[in-house]
Amino acid sequence: MSLLLIAKNRDFSSLEKALLVKDPNLDVEIWPRVENKERVHFAVCWNHPEKVLGNYPNLRAVSSLGAGVNHLLDDESLSDDIPICRLITDALQDQMAEYVLNSVVNYRLHIWDYYENKKKGVWEQKSTIPIKYSPVGIMGMGEMGTNVATLLAQQGYAVSGWSRSKKDIEGVTSYAGNNELNDFLSETKILVNLLPLTDETEGILDLDLFKKLKQPGYLINVGRGDHLVEEDLIYAFDMDYLEGACLDVFEEEPLPNNHSFWNRKQIMVTPHIAAITPAREAAKVLVENYKRAMSGMDLLYEVDRERGY
Ligand code: NDP
Ligand code: OXD
């Protein structure tokens, strides 16, 4: 029985090492050099080639190498009866909270304007936007969103969260379902997207939604690129619905060299790095789920295929 790591353009050496430290008896294979396809019982995938999973007839479970699983649910070669799980760790949650908090603070302090001014030798003081004028709304109150909301609330921000079901989190106002989306948006100045990508959420970040924020709003997209209607972001700047955006995820990754986002002053681009699990922590969860799958137990962080997350 083997555990297979599959990704395009990824160096798996530290993860392979960490998996073997965790369990020296594990048989780890790295795609595309697979000795025996029949022996592959557990696959760990990130940005994997289309239909590759159909090559392994004895798969018992598949894990994402991250929190998102849209790449696995979209893979038609993966049969419906194979359980899919996610990789959630404290490190992933903490990094996400740190990334969002930093993005919020950079916005309030106009850090990106100072960065531009430094290139031109311009000394111009701007008033920092007070916390009380910076209510944050988080779309998606799951493993990531809850941690982000808690940290921001502890820092003194007015925080609200939007999800399918109501939440009870200290210092956080909860809105649930489509009926409460408009109320949530009207309370929000800084919008953080931490939804999973599903049929329901694809394209949710559009002009109509930006229009409903406290204006001008600010967008932090750390969910998926396909949540955002890219041309609507530009219209939203032109119409002053939004004054800026910090984007970590894009429709096409890497973001193409000629993409207009690179030259937009209002947009901060980071290369999908908001949260990346360190190999040692990832190995703990992967080995646990591998063992569970081999012995027919329920998996940690198993995905509900019907819901799509
Ligand atoms: P979870 O599955 O734990 O949480 C998803 C949340 O979204 C839940 O609160 C859920 O509501 C809510 N939700 C789902 N569908 C809807 C909908 N139609 N309407 C309203 N709310 C909805 O996901 P995670 O928090 O672990 O991760 C979220 C996403 O963040 C990932 O899917 C991934 O795309 C992205 N991500 C990005 C990273 C990066 O580095 N940029 C790193 C990690 C994650 P409910 O609670 O009611 O079910
Ligand atoms: C994830 C990601 O889903 O890094 O974990 O995007």
What is the topology?
Layout: E1 2-7, H1 13-22, E2 28-30, E3 40-46, E4 61-64, H2 70-73, E5 84-85, H3 90-108, H4 111-120, E6 136-139, H5 143-154, E7 159-163, E8 172-176, H6 181-186, E9 190-193, H7 207-211, E10 217-221, H8 230-238, E11 242-247, E12 267-269, H9 279-294
Parallel strand pairs: 1-2, 1-3, 3-4, 4-5, 6-7, 6-9, 7-8, 9-10, 10-11, 11-12
The chain binds NADPH dihydro-nicotinamide-adenine-dinucleotide phosphate and oxalic acid.
Q: What is the chain-wise order of helices and strands?
A: EHEEEHEHHEHEEHEHEHEEH
Whole-number tally of structural domains: 2
Relative helix content: 25-40%
Mean pLDDT: 97
- Please identify the top-level CATH class of the largest domain: Alpha Beta
The number of distinct helices, counting runs of at least 4 residues, comes to: 9
Classify the fold: give the CATH topology of the largest domain.
Rossmann fold
Could you give the count of β-strands?
12
The major β-sheet equals: 7 strands, parallel
CATH architecture descriptor text of the largest domain:
3-Layer(aba) Sandwich
User: Which class best fits the helix and strand makeup?
Assistant: alpha/beta
Bound molecules: NADPH dihydro-nicotinamide-adenine-dinucleotide phosphate, oxalic acid
Poorly predicted runs are none
Note the main attributes of this structure.
alpha/beta; Rossmann fold; 2 domains; binds NADPH dihydro-nicotinamide-adenine-dinucleotide phosphate
